[in-house]
Amino acid sequence: MNKTYVEMKNICKTFGVIRANRNVNFSVYEGEIHGLLGENGAGKSTLVNMLSGIYTPDSGSIFIHGEQVNIHSPKHAIELGIGMIHQHFKLIDVLTAAENVLLGHSQSVFISNKSRIKSIQNVMEKYGMEIDLNKRIMDMSVSEKQTVEILKVLYRGSKILILDEPTAVLTPQEIDKLFTVLKNLAETGCAIIIITHKLNEIMSVTDRVTVLRQGETVSTLETRKTNIRELTELMVGKPVNLSIERIHSRKGDLLLSVKGLTALGEHNVPVLDNVTFDLYEGEILGVAGVAGSGQKELCEAIAGLYPVEKGDIYFKGENIVGFSPREIIKRGVSMSFIPEDRLGMGLVPSMNMIDNMLLKDYVNQPGITVNRKPAKEKAERVSKRLEIQAPSIYTAIRKLSGGNIQKVLLGREIDANPHLLITAYPVRGLDIGASYNIYDLLKEQKQKGVGILYIGEDLDVLIELCDRIMVLCDGKVTGITGSESITKEGLGLMMAGETLSSIKKGDVVCKS
Amino acid sequence: MQIIKREGTSTKQIIMIRLIAIIAAIIVSGIFIVFLGYNPVKVYVNMISGALGSKIRFRATLLEMVPLVITSLGILVAFKMKFWNIGGEGQILMGAFGATYIALFVDWIPKPLVIPVMFIVGFLAGGIWGIIPAFFKANFGANETIMTLMLNYIATQWITYLQYGPWRDPDLKGFAKIANFPDHALLPKVFGIHIGLIISLVLVIIISWFLRRTKRGFEISVVGESVSTARYAGMDISRIIITTMLLSGGLCGITGVIQAAGVNKTLTMNVSSGYGFTAVITTYLSGLRAQRVLIVSFLFAILLQGGSYIQSALQIPQAAADVLQGMILFCALGSEFFVNYKVRFRKNSISSEVK
Asked: Which residues in A lie closer than 8 A to residue B218 (C-beta atoms)?
């Protein structure tokens, strides 16, 4: 057996009353890609944060290269050769790749010099990585940025790499590229820990996988000796049916018709470019695309929150471009956008559930005072219907878990009985059970005849849940297709800019 | 050493931290007093008795409290919206300016109505001084901190100009002063204290109700917490910012009216004398709760009044009294840090055993 690079024994960590890790045992060998699998709140992040020096364990011991250590700071972790690649990149936009790699590492006053660049190139050659070192971060794609992040930790001499949900922002093709790099790294003797909740990725890239559930290690398995079904059961603790049953409801009348929608972003670059699509009652239209392809702007433009440069948005035959957000809400358009930080838009984190229920309703109450009684009833109703777990409806939203926060938002929007429901990333970061709850809720709305615009990340889910899928790339629609006639790979190509007609020629990626 | 954010500090902990801060302030200031050659116990006793020791002193303390309370309420509504209004000084002066105009230069108003009109005009004048930065913030994203601060200087110079120029009292030869208000423009007294005290108490109740129970109060909190959420919910952000600043500046303006018509009996620079800035501290210490503003302002008034008393009673120089006030404040504000963060010390050796 290869040498053990990392060993964590009987790790315990509590935050207040929450026991994030209980007697976790975990080890990673040289040349291994080790998957860390678990639902949200299972303790994956806590565990790796103790390895990267952000937290210290309450009890238990950590051995790096066989030596017991007490990792007291992120700097110390780097010194020990542990490199963490976070989900949100920590890069400086205006600097080049080389400058970012050298940043914080140089001992001298002058940052760039030739010998350093040369040594970065050596690292790249060694691991077979490709990137233009003189390119600025702001001109890079997400996948290039991620390469820079990996290069950064490798340059610092890290032999142990931790990747936190690295695939969340990548297209299927980019994911393949990343996995090739990871496999190269492992072959040259690095140990890699990859956190993910996507089971197919675990199966395709890892050598071993450790499953965590409610802060405890359930099991460590060799990947080739297990399968998705077994892993899911270990992760959730009970057998789960992973297919989403698509309901076929009768296609209703035309609800939303977007024609030639164009919107500008910074520096007058179009973020939405001539977007045209229709959405019918009782239909779920999925929107796929790499993060930042115009999804947010599309949602906001329809809700009246983003200025429209050109084009029309017809809702039930009425052009709503130029209407105030409140007028659009009154017509029954409801938007729930779950941003990356979950709390950016739609909810007020420091307020309780009742006040958050009031957010859109207060204005319809008579007089100058607010009446919190109907909001209280609504909070109770929503929290019962969606099984929201909160100490009480008087608890500040900020203190709830991510999944419950999302339920509050979606629950409020559904409770308003909208005609059009725009929902972006509603299952972001949710565990499997909670995700399927949300899918059920959406399907229920669909059956009621609500038109749903669903902006999603997981292509498998998009294909299973939606009736049709629209793909965005750089603000342009690269294709709208029935979800039964497209594969994941096909969507991936469209997300990267190929048009539907061009990929249809290669029949591999389309089902007949 | 690490600084860690506290989550959910319990009330008991908060009270403990505050108590420790007060004790620390007393001890540190005590050492300072010893170095000055005074007996610290005597100085403290004098401070307390100077502020609360007799009816007259207690009244003086209350008079000191009134402008702090009202100005703090004004600052509070702005801060609740995360609009950093540090232009209280200017808004107070402009409020006083408006009231003075009515008191001295408008003679067609029936006498019983003069004071109510003074309050309305003072409110509007202060409010306009608050609307100016709000307008620029709402429409052009201007930095309100800088603007409100700069408007203070404009207001100060404007009052100085009036005092030495057009509004100078011609009856006082050689002395630049604006004429005293006529009797019907002076605030009536209740139990020996002008009605400003009652007004301030009523305003505490009104503002507390306004922020918690009204739609606009709800909107202010939402805008303060998250502008994007407010926009999402369909709120008209510009209108909310502007009307809130009308209220904020208007409340400060009322302080100006009360100080001019109740204390100074005319318009002078002393009308504001730092309340606009002190109120920033009291508002912050109150944790943006209207009722607590009253308590904090009262304690602050004791500090101010006691400080000026020991100057005359013990011949402690003004500067030393200011240092004392400063140290007490430093500890009070410093304790805020420990309410929100804790400091953890730990060994930096790699080899030390993990528990």
From this structure: 355, 358, 362, 370
